[in-house]
Specification:
The chain is α/β, with parallel strands linked by helices. It is built from 16 helices and ten strands.
Length: 358
Amino acid sequence: MNNESTVNFGRKQSHRKIGLAAVVIVLVVIAAMFLIKNLQKPASSGLTLVRFRLQWTPQAQFAGYLVAKELSYYKEQGLDVEIRPAGPDLKPQNTIAAGSDDLAVGVSNLIVASRSSGVPLKIIAQIFQDSANRYILKKENAIKSLKDLRGKKVGIWMGGDEAEFVAMLKSAGMTLDDVKVVPEGFSVAPFLNDDYVLSMVTTYNELNQIRDQDLTDDKLQIITPRDYNVAIVGDALFTSEKYLKENRAVAQKFLDASLKGWKYCAENPDKAVDIVLKFDKSLKRNDQVKQLKEVMLLVLSGQAKSRGIGYMDRNFYVTAERVLFDSGQISKRVDPSAVFDDSLWQKVPEADKLLENK
């Protein structure tokens, strides 16, 4: 699963709508995990165990946490952080709801959708300040407006990931029925082979793979959801309201150390990649260098440079909630202010979240 030429590491969270059936599944998982909760291995002597779930397998997308682990930032806070990988069949929002994990990485729309279904998850830091998604076409297939896609094949990740694209089409008076959707897999080959004219990609993974095939940016038309005011901000740190209430001091320490790790990545990218490679020796250095570069653009975009890494803007979640509701991903409205809690982030020392050279 570590061949980056074909596999999307980190993007394949299938942000599905959490309807009644999904809620039932979550409740079943909660019941099962209740028994497991007391079987967790004890933390190292004198340290508090934190079970931390990634959104995918270790890679540069999660460099800040890997750095914090390797450089003992967590240990200095009195924490024994167990970094756990995820995958297509393991959803962090479910493990957090079940109580089998304490904190996790996830995209903001997962938290909005969960809250819409009555699962009280809470974001405590917004690591990515923009959507990681882009929608690309080869220059010869470039469009002047989204209406030019009518009747054409488009490669989109479904199961919830399509929310931004649905909202973009809506701005042009269109729906998914106006295009021919081809559900994307883990490979960029179909786009390269012209199986569809438009492909949904992430900036830090598939877009890099496509550039490596001599399709540089001047040979592409790159459409960003931000231009349509439908960008759903990417990776966030989240937990359950229950865990936050009962373990607030631990969550604070974890956040302090994690943001310090991300700051280190911004200031020492080459060394950060060295650390990432320690967690998975099968990764290719050149791929991880490029991935971290794109990840840090997401981490440091917007107001993060001036306010600090992990900054949360209520408007992020206003947009996510609107896009999910308009695209039919949620049926019950959510108060955007309930999606996040920035009180811990406010207490993180500025030295650990602000770059020295802004």
